[in-house]
Amino acid sequence: MGQLDEARFEALIGAGCTKCSSKVLEIRTFLDRRLLIMLADPNDAGRWVHDGEKFVDGTYRITCASCSTVVFEDESCPRCNAVGGLERALEDTSRLAIPKRCPGCNEIELLALALVAAKAKSGAGTPKPEPLAEFGEPGHHTVAFACESCDAAVVTQKCPLCDATGPLRPRP
Q1: DSSP letter, residue 87
Q2: Which one, 2, 23, 26, 49, has the greatest CB density within 10 A?
Q3: Which contiguous run of DSSP H or E holds residue 56?
Q4: CA distance linking residue 82 with residue 60, whole number of Å
Q5: Could you report the per-residue pLDDT of 27-42, keeping only the tens digit for each?
Protein backbone atom coordinates (compact mmCIF):
# COMPACT_ATOMS: atom_id res chain seq x y z
CA MET A 1 0.00 0.00 0.00
CA GLY A 2 0.95 3.59 -0.47
CA GLN A 3 0.76 5.96 2.47
CA LEU A 4 -3.06 5.79 2.50
CA ASP A 5 -5.27 2.77 2.87
CA GLU A 6 -8.89 2.87 1.73
CA ALA A 7 -10.30 3.53 5.21
CA ARG A 8 -8.02 6.54 5.83
CA PHE A 9 -8.61 7.85 2.28
CA GLU A 10 -12.39 7.65 2.70
CA ALA A 11 -12.16 9.35 6.12
CA LEU A 12 -10.15 12.25 4.65
CA ILE A 13 -12.51 12.65 1.68
CA GLY A 14 -15.58 12.34 3.90
CA ALA A 15 -14.33 14.98 6.33
CA GLY A 16 -13.61 17.50 3.58
CA CYS A 17 -11.65 20.65 4.32
CA THR A 18 -11.03 21.36 7.99
CA LYS A 19 -10.43 25.05 7.26
CA CYS A 20 -13.42 26.10 5.10
CA SER A 21 -15.69 23.00 5.41
CA SER A 22 -15.84 22.47 1.63
CA LYS A 23 -16.56 18.88 0.63
CA VAL A 24 -14.86 19.24 -2.78
CA LEU A 25 -11.25 18.11 -2.71
CA GLU A 26 -8.67 17.80 -5.47
CA ILE A 27 -6.82 14.48 -5.43
CA ARG A 28 -3.42 14.07 -7.10
CA THR A 29 -2.45 10.47 -7.85
CA PHE A 30 -0.57 8.19 -10.24
CA LEU A 31 -2.93 5.95 -12.22
CA ASP A 32 -2.63 3.09 -14.68
CA ARG A 33 -3.28 4.12 -18.30
CA ARG A 34 -3.26 1.86 -21.36
CA LEU A 35 -2.10 3.23 -24.73
CA LEU A 36 -2.07 1.84 -28.23
CA ILE A 37 1.31 2.56 -29.80
CA MET A 38 2.24 2.56 -33.49
CA LEU A 39 5.87 3.04 -34.52
CA ALA A 40 6.68 4.29 -30.97
CA ASP A 41 3.99 7.02 -31.05
CA PRO A 42 0.57 6.93 -29.34
CA ASN A 43 -2.23 5.89 -31.66
CA ASP A 44 -4.94 7.03 -29.24
CA ALA A 45 -5.37 9.21 -26.14
CA GLY A 46 -5.25 6.16 -23.91
CA ARG A 47 -7.72 4.96 -21.33
CA TRP A 48 -7.63 4.55 -17.59
CA VAL A 49 -7.32 0.92 -16.44
CA HIS A 50 -7.16 1.32 -12.66
CA ASP A 51 -9.56 0.27 -9.94
CA GLY A 52 -10.49 2.04 -6.71
CA GLU A 53 -7.65 0.46 -4.73
CA LYS A 54 -5.04 1.62 -7.24
CA PHE A 55 -6.57 5.12 -7.27
CA VAL A 56 -6.04 5.30 -3.51
CA ASP A 57 -2.64 3.59 -3.70
CA GLY A 58 -1.16 6.25 -6.02
CA THR A 59 -2.47 9.25 -4.05
CA TYR A 60 0.24 11.70 -3.03
CA ARG A 61 -1.68 14.94 -2.39
CA ILE A 62 -5.20 16.01 -1.44
CA THR A 63 -6.11 19.71 -1.28
CA CYS A 64 -9.29 21.71 -0.84
CA ALA A 65 -10.66 22.83 -4.21
CA SER A 66 -11.98 26.05 -2.61
CA CYS A 67 -9.19 27.34 -0.36
CA SER A 68 -6.18 25.15 -1.35
CA THR A 69 -5.65 23.84 2.19
CA VAL A 70 -3.52 20.70 2.10
CA VAL A 71 -5.49 17.81 3.58
CA PHE A 72 -2.87 15.12 2.84
CA GLU A 73 0.60 15.17 1.31
CA ASP A 74 3.39 12.64 1.00
CA GLU A 75 6.73 13.17 -0.78
CA SER A 76 7.75 9.51 -0.99
CA CYS A 77 7.37 7.61 -4.26
CA PRO A 78 3.76 6.46 -4.67
CA ARG A 79 4.94 3.15 -6.20
CA CYS A 80 7.86 1.99 -4.06
CA ASN A 81 7.77 4.42 -1.09
CA ALA A 82 11.35 5.60 -1.71
CA VAL A 83 12.07 8.74 0.31
CA GLY A 84 11.93 11.82 -1.94
CA GLY A 85 10.78 9.73 -4.91
CA LEU A 86 7.71 11.86 -5.69
CA GLU A 87 9.83 14.74 -7.03
CA ARG A 88 11.61 12.39 -9.47
CA ALA A 89 8.28 10.83 -10.47
CA LEU A 90 6.78 14.22 -11.33
CA GLU A 91 9.85 15.79 -12.98
CA ASP A 92 11.36 12.87 -14.93
CA THR A 93 10.21 11.30 -18.18
CA SER A 94 9.75 7.57 -18.67
CA ARG A 95 12.86 5.45 -18.39
CA LEU A 96 11.43 2.56 -20.41
CA ALA A 97 11.61 3.44 -24.11
CA ILE A 98 9.10 1.87 -26.47
CA PRO A 99 10.70 0.64 -29.69
CA LYS A 100 9.31 1.47 -33.12
CA ARG A 101 8.77 -2.24 -33.77
CA CYS A 102 8.23 -5.33 -31.66
CA PRO A 103 11.61 -6.88 -30.82
CA GLY A 104 10.08 -10.34 -31.27
CA CYS A 105 8.18 -10.17 -34.57
CA ASN A 106 8.78 -6.69 -36.04
CA GLU A 107 5.08 -5.70 -35.65
CA ILE A 108 4.51 -1.92 -35.70
CA GLU A 109 1.69 -1.88 -33.13
CA LEU A 110 2.26 -2.38 -29.42
CA LEU A 111 0.23 -1.96 -26.23
CA ALA A 112 1.79 0.07 -23.43
CA LEU A 113 0.89 0.38 -19.77
CA ALA A 114 1.97 3.53 -17.98
CA LEU A 115 1.65 5.14 -14.58
CA VAL A 116 0.47 8.69 -15.22
CA ALA A 117 0.18 11.68 -12.90
CA ALA A 118 -3.49 12.63 -12.72
CA LYS A 119 -5.93 14.78 -10.79
CA ALA A 120 -9.56 14.30 -9.89
CA LYS A 121 -12.14 16.11 -7.75
CA SER A 122 -14.13 14.41 -5.05
CA GLY A 123 -17.51 15.51 -3.77
CA ALA A 124 -19.67 14.84 -6.83
CA GLY A 125 -19.87 11.08 -7.33
CA THR A 126 -17.00 8.99 -8.63
CA PRO A 127 -13.93 11.16 -9.27
CA LYS A 128 -13.15 11.38 -13.02
CA PRO A 129 -9.37 11.52 -13.53
CA GLU A 130 -7.68 14.02 -15.81
CA PRO A 131 -4.11 13.29 -16.92
CA LEU A 132 -1.46 15.80 -15.85
CA ALA A 133 1.06 14.41 -18.34
CA GLU A 134 0.93 13.02 -21.86
CA PHE A 135 3.12 10.37 -23.50
CA GLY A 136 6.75 11.56 -23.54
CA GLU A 137 6.23 14.26 -20.89
CA PRO A 138 7.49 14.31 -17.29
CA GLY A 139 5.04 12.43 -15.05
CA HIS A 140 4.13 9.84 -17.71
CA HIS A 141 6.03 6.61 -17.00
CA THR A 142 5.84 3.49 -19.14
CA VAL A 143 5.75 0.39 -16.96
CA ALA A 144 5.53 -2.24 -19.71
CA PHE A 145 4.80 -2.81 -23.37
CA ALA A 146 3.57 -5.90 -25.19
CA CYS A 147 2.85 -7.18 -28.67
CA GLU A 148 -0.50 -8.85 -29.32
CA SER A 149 0.85 -10.61 -32.41
CA CYS A 150 3.61 -12.63 -30.75
CA ASP A 151 2.98 -12.13 -27.01
CA ALA A 152 6.41 -10.56 -26.50
CA ALA A 153 6.48 -8.29 -23.45
CA VAL A 154 8.99 -6.04 -21.69
CA VAL A 155 8.50 -4.85 -18.10
CA THR A 156 10.67 -2.33 -16.27
CA GLN A 157 12.77 -3.90 -13.52
CA LYS A 158 13.24 -0.76 -11.41
CA CYS A 159 10.58 1.52 -10.01
CA PRO A 160 8.97 3.09 -13.09
CA LEU A 161 8.29 6.35 -11.25
CA CYS A 162 11.48 7.20 -9.40
CA ASP A 163 14.03 4.66 -10.73
CA ALA A 164 14.74 3.23 -7.25
CA THR A 165 16.12 -0.28 -7.29
CA GLY A 166 13.37 -1.50 -5.03
CA PRO A 167 12.12 -3.60 -3.59
CA LEU A 168 8.92 -2.81 -5.45
CA ARG A 169 6.08 -3.36 -3.06
CA PRO A 170 3.04 -5.32 -4.20
CA ARG A 171 0.14 -3.18 -5.38
CA PRO A 172 -3.46 -3.87 -4.40
Answers
A1: H
A2: 2
A3: helix 52-57
A4: 13
A5: 999 999 999 999 999 9
